[in-house]
Amino acid sequence: MTLRCVITHRCLCPQLLNTLPTRTHGPAAALNINRLLSPPIARNFSTPSGSTTPEETPTQETETSTDKIENQYSGFRIRKVPIAKPDGDRRAARERYAGSTPMVFRSPELTGIDKVADLGRRSMLPGVFKAAEELVRGGYVPDTKLYAVLIEACGNFQGCLLQPLAFRLFEEMKARGLQVNSEIYHSLLKLLAKSPDYLKRSEVLSEMKQGWYEVTEGGWEDVIAGYILGGQLEMALEILDRRRREGRTLHRNIYKDVITGLCKVGEVDEALRLLRELEAEISWVTPPALAYTLLAAATNQLHLEATLFCWRMIIDKEMFNPDDGLCLSTLNVAARHGQPQLASDVFRVLWNRSFKYEEHHYAALLESYAVAGDLTAALSILPLMRQAGVPPVENTAQPITKRLCDDASIQEGLNLLKQMKKSGKDVDLAAIHALIAAHIVRRDIDAAFEVYKELPEFDLRPDINTFNLLLKIAAKEARKDFAVNLVGEMKEMRIEPDVETYEHLFYVSLAQDNYEDAFIYLEELKATWKHVRPSLYKALATKCYLAGDNNRYHIAVRELRAMGIRPAGFIRKLREAHSKPSN
């Protein structure tokens, strides 16, 4: 494409005119280029929009100071603008300014290449190309300066829509034998900062290197911005680190964009490294939005180091008040990595805003103490929850159970509870359940029952969850005698069984050679709760299959089909596992 094509709009119009706002009403709906190029009409801003223009005051024929200025600088046009109040009292306004009339000076009208350059800097498109057309028609020979102005105008346009046009101009000027200067190269880099086209960017940098043109600080910022936009964060980091090693500084927005890009792709380690290096510099001040972005990314990945760094920076420097979601994410990190101090800080922030805690908030705080090995603090949270009206649920004390199993010292937990009781502290039933659950993990039914018998010492009474835990281990160990004794104690304490109770009794009966009682509990389940888990019928079918009880095996399979389950896969796996012919 030649410059003549550009200035006659045969290439620009399809791309540019469709992107610029046009009038959609009236007879002249197309873009009026002459109107864009015409000088703006001066407006008297002192006149209310709803009122008429004040009548002009006849001027004296004598030469005033304004006339002298006009005579001295003929390129200027000076217009006197009277200052009037909304009520039209000009006299008060003149007295306020000591009799002098403020004047508005309009800069001289630009002509020639200066006019084209001015329009290009102000992104007046397509006016800049129309001005270039008029300039060439007037006899101006296209030179490097004109191409530089037009390429710069392409770079000033929003986005990278004019990138093809800019590079066609770039190739055309080289074909004319014109020398490409540093200004043009940097205009192209500025344009490519808004484009993911890394190949063109590499070509420009390569030509600059061959021509011994040095990339300016602003040019490198454009290069890094383009790599970030294209998702090539490694290239951006490489340039950024090299510039830092050379002692060069970049705009803070570049660092912000790099760290934000790293957070988006989950590179929290690199983002943390860069931010730490920047924090060590005196001139750097971390923007609150950047700290929020990194903390959110760190908590999303349960990254402890980055979470601690950002949280302390936000709280110590009082950047902002973390929202509830960010606090809860930070609390989860504290729980996972055993950081009770961090969890306490989060609780304090939430407490200051009268936040209503729920079970999972306390559970996270408890887990942070349990993972850190502070079982005393973890156990003491359970009665606090009940006092706050948020009773522990079945899984609340699970971190305590896991810690007791890992430490291979369940007796230590029981001793801690006795010390708490002796010192006057409350002991919650959930803590006893945690000890029983630890014995269940180790399949030590006798030790679990010994913990159960310690309940009166803590002034506690077992509930249905206590018996379900003990029945669970009885089912695992096939201890029907133990289960029967527990059912007797439940009746004495008038504790009503639930679905889980009947399921454990079903499994413990099914584990016996004589499994007739399993059918009784299964029927009671169906009669009382209407719904039975498919896993029970699968367990029954397996037992009947192995015992050769084909009749009831087929009954169990039909029950699975009646529940909408296709048992073909289950049957195939059952036969493959036990290598028996089909019945």
UniProtKB/TrEMBL annotation:
InterPro entries named in the record: PPR_P_subfamily, PPR_rpt, TPR-like_helical_dom_sf, TPR_mt
Keywords: Repeat
Signal peptide span: none
Domain of life according to the entry: Eukaryota
Low complexity composition-biased segments: 46-63
Protein name (database record): Pentatricopeptide repeat-containing protein-mitochondrial domain-containing protein
Family, as annotated: Belongs to the PPR family. P subfamily.
UniProt keyword Repeat, yes or no: yes
Record has Repeat as a keyword: yes
Annotated region described as Disordered, given as residue ranges: 41-68
Segments forming domain Pentatricopeptide repeat-containing protein-mitochondrial: 324-454
Family matches, as PANTHER family: MITOCHONDRIAL GROUP I INTRON SPLICING FACTOR CCM1, PENTACOTRIPEPTIDE-REPEAT REGION OF PRORP DOMAIN-CONTAINING PROTEIN
PPR repeat locations: 143-180, 358-392, 463-497
Highest classification ranks of the organism: Eukaryota, Fungi, Dikarya, Ascomycota, Pezizomycotina
Species annotation: Morchella conica CCBAS932
Pfam families cross-referenced by the UniProt entry: PPR (PF01535), PPR_3 (PF13812), TPR_24 (PF23276)
